[in-house]
Amino acid sequence: MAPQTRRMAFPRVVVAPRETDSEQSSSEEEEEEDPLPEYESEPEVENGNGDKVEQKAPITITLKKVCKVCKKAGHEAGFKGATYIDCPMKPCFLCKMPGHTTMTCPHRVTTEHGVIPAPHRNACNPLEYVFERQLRPRIPLIKPAYVIPDQVTCGVIRYHSRRVTCLEFHPTKNNILLSGDKKGQVGVLDYYKTSEKMVYGNIHSCIVNNMRFNPTNDGAIYAASSDGTISCTDMETGISLSLMNLNPDGWQGPSSWRMLYGMDINPEKGVVLVADNCGFLYMVDMRSNSKSGEAILIHKKGSKVVGLHCNPIQPELLLSCGNDHFARLWDMRRLEAGSSLFDLAHRRVVNSAYFSPLSGSKILTTSQDNRLRIWDSIFSNMDTPSREIVHSHDFNRHLTPFRAEWDPKDPSESLAVIGRYISENYNGAALHPIDFIDISTGQLVAEVMDPNITTISPVNKLHPQDDVLASGSSRSIFIWRPKEKSELVEQKDERKIIVCGRAEKKQNRKLGNGSDDSDDDITLKGKNVKSKKSVTKLTPYSRKGKL
DNA sequence: AAAGAATGTCACC
DNA sequence: TGGTGACCCTTCTT
């Protein structure tokens, strides 16, 4: 039999004998799913006496519904309304363990998303001693309560024509947000003055994987792209310089094409660090804008290095992660193949690995095995993570990979934000919230959603100073802010479910007129809607009839 | 309304 | 090791 693919949309045709007096199906498509498994596949049926009788005629053809995941009858995976029913033959889609489905997964029904607690460890090595002496005082002893608003407004910006792949806030100019997309476009937006936005389409020719502002000249943007180049662009003029090109001879076929993924800037050393899809790290001197030194193999040869992060406190520490299932900690003074300080093993691809933003002493990773991992101290035992938190952020080739991001404003370095893959049935709508997680406990502190937003938001960034969250979801960018400053309240023990824009939903849908003029495409819900055309873009409804 | 396309990772040979 | 095909709770266009 030819291999069956998931695309097979129609039920398998089964030739089954039927009782001679059975009714004809009024409609094959409307046939209810059979609650008795395997019934129709039996070659024999019972007569009234319980004897097996071979049926010869007439033969009718029925279309039997089978599960689209396992191709077996008796159940069907997929959306029932706004609730997704898992295939029971598969491991749980959330925690990946067999024996239950997502609906009954213990990590779903509790607010602690399945924390595997850290074993107690003794602090005894010299590095940890230094940490305790020099860095620990920076961290408050008592964790302050998170300040998360009860209500938020959400602005929607649409100027990318392909899905958003990365977001970056300007470090000092408060309202400036950078965005990159799959097509290679780079957007610079002032989200308070929506007319002030620029989209640069000629910097890169495909996916912008990472962007950074130049810390010494914050009008300059560095970007690494799958086109194999790293660019430095003037934010105001869009004038761009290519600092490095891994494909100087152009397209010579997929096997030779090289792409740039992970990127970060080390201001102390004045270098841009960038890594490719073959396991190599490159350094570009920011003064001369030229490559310095040779490429260094930092991950398995031939594997993508998707993330680089320089330690915010100790400039000689570098963190990398990639498709070889490892995050690795490096000493910049001794960067050579195989010389990493620590190799942090994961079960799947590591989408991101970040030092904590203030002390730089913790590490947070996002892996495609649906787990966040936290190492509480890079100066302590690094053999196993301090905590693993089960969270739904699966890989899907059509989505930008999820990355858990620290809240740079949280002095206790324990709040992280990450989009959620699996949907929640919210009043009949399948919504994908954006989760705020206390990574010291695994508790889901808050989940943010909007009935108008039915798409998944894999890209999220918290503002370095303000209470602003930027999300990239498909081609749109969302700016979430507290609805009223006065409504800010301290976080209690229970998680908050923050729903935005609920009342406006139907009104907005009626107003839409389908115009695709994109000059005025930002709207803040909760305030007056500016125009019909902008409202149209507020309603990216899915076609599954979930609303 | 439903099909088609785009197209990373992983297991398997 | 490199090629192949299955997998995936997508999202948008035709």
TrEMBL record:
Record-linked SUPFAM superfamilies: WD40 repeat-like (SSF50978)
Database matches in InterPro entries? DDB2, WD40/YVTN_repeat-like_dom_sf, WD40_repeat_dom_sf, WD40_rpt
Question: Which keywords, in A-to-Z order, does the entry hold?
Answer: DNA damage, DNA repair, DNA-binding, Nucleus, Repeat, Ubl conjugation pathway, WD repeat
In which broad location class does this protein mainly occur, judging by the first location in its UniProt entry? Answer: nucleus
Compartments it resides in: Nucleus
Q: Which domain of life is it from?
A: Eukaryota
Task: Return the Acidic residues bias intervals.
Answer: 26-45
**Any matching Pfam family:** WD40
Q: Where are the annotated WD repeats, by residue?
A: 343-376
Q: Locate the region Disordered.
A: 1-53, 506-547
Q: Carries keyword Nucleus?
A: yes
What family does the entry list? Belongs to the WD repeat DDB2/WDR76 family.
- What is the protein name given in its UniProt record? Protein DAMAGED DNA-BINDING 2
**What is the species of this protein?**
Xanthoceras sorbifolium
